[in-house]
Amino acid sequence: MAYSEDNPEDMVELERALMRISHLLTRAKQHDQTIVEAGVAVDRASTPLLRVLADAPEPVRLGALADRLAVEAPHVTRQVQRLERAGFVERVPDPDDGRAQRVRITTKGAETVECVRAVGRRQMAAALAGWSDEDRHRLAVLCHRMVDDFLRHADDEGLLGR
């Protein structure tokens, strides 16, 4: 698609780059390679859920997990059940509602996430080895800024479901 007022060239190229990144990060082959290198056993669908729980300062309600992952609650419930059986997460009482439960990551789950993240960092370091420290830092800052702006926009548009 060529440049137009509705499709500025930089937006076209940014969208292309983001789609390429998304494809690279979500390929089954990439996940399988990372898991083998990390020496852990976690399926591709469970990894984002474990990452969210690893970053959460306190246990999280199932509905909040679904919102953060932008998926339906039944999907999260099934994932949590599988992860619970594997010892990666556990349910704990919700301090605000005696009838409800929250989910928190276990030590095994946290160690698994760290192994996966360590492999990802090594892979990025190898791929960006020719980049200067300044360029890598600038990329990280701009990526965070972009995600923050995307989230703010989605929240303004009511797309986050919060």
TrEMBL record:
Pfam families: MarR_2. GO terms for molecular function: DNA-binding transcription factor activity. It comes from the Bacteria. Coiled coil: none annotated. Residues 11-148 form the HTH marR-type domain. One of its GO terms (biological process) is response to stress. This is MarR family transcriptional regulator.
